[in-house]
Amino acid sequence: MDTDFGLFGPDSITWRVHADPSMAVAGVRALLQQALHPIAMAGVAGHSNFREDAWGRLSRTAEYVGIVTYGTTAEAKVASKRVRAVHKKLKLDDPHLLRWVHVSMVDSFLDVAKRSGMALSDADADRYLAEMQEFARQVGITSDIPANRVEIAQYLQDISPELFASDDAREGARFIAIPPMPDWVRFGTPAQGAWAGISLLAAQSMPVWANKLYGFPVLPTVITDTALRAFRLALMAIPGSVREGPHVRAARERVSGAS
What we know:
By secondary structure, the chain is an all-alpha fold. It has one domain (13-258). It contains 15 helices and no strands. The model has no long low-confidence stretch (mean pLDDT 89).
């Protein structure tokens, strides 16, 4: 019986990108960038508990990305069906808004991976974006999914008049930068300092236009890129068996078992 490698498989660019340690920064950047659509952010603010559970929202998003990327086809479809049901319940299933969330995610993942030093050619980048059309379809986007760098750039230009840093977006950014932590974690571990570094890198890795909408200071690109590369190299020194999540490890075991 053929092994089920899921929606993408070990030869995909998606597997490579989503297993890269730079995703720790890219995931936070995606949340910050997604919040710049005021209607999408108002939906999150009005229908979810992101203020009380900022960590939970980030971890649930990471869990979903991990399942859809590395899970079996059945696991990916079950997870996607659950997410579509949640979006419908919270009235966050408008295709226009879902498309913005999707594009912000893939734009963040790809840009941060490349700037952090991951070896990706222009052809690899376009292939990744084409593969991620399937990711978009899983959350219910059925048309007009940007499939390459040119289409992504055009999409971001077209939607730019709709974007600004609303009060909800600014509050969301504050919760992302300084999430609630138990006192024993905040004062007894390096978690707060480490998270502050990640959130700062995430913000600075956003496009200049996004930082300007928030009113964040914009560092020279070379400084941000140097910091991104240093962060990735530091995490690359950690063995993959420790650094990689359970979905990645399970997928690698399926590949090894099929060899």
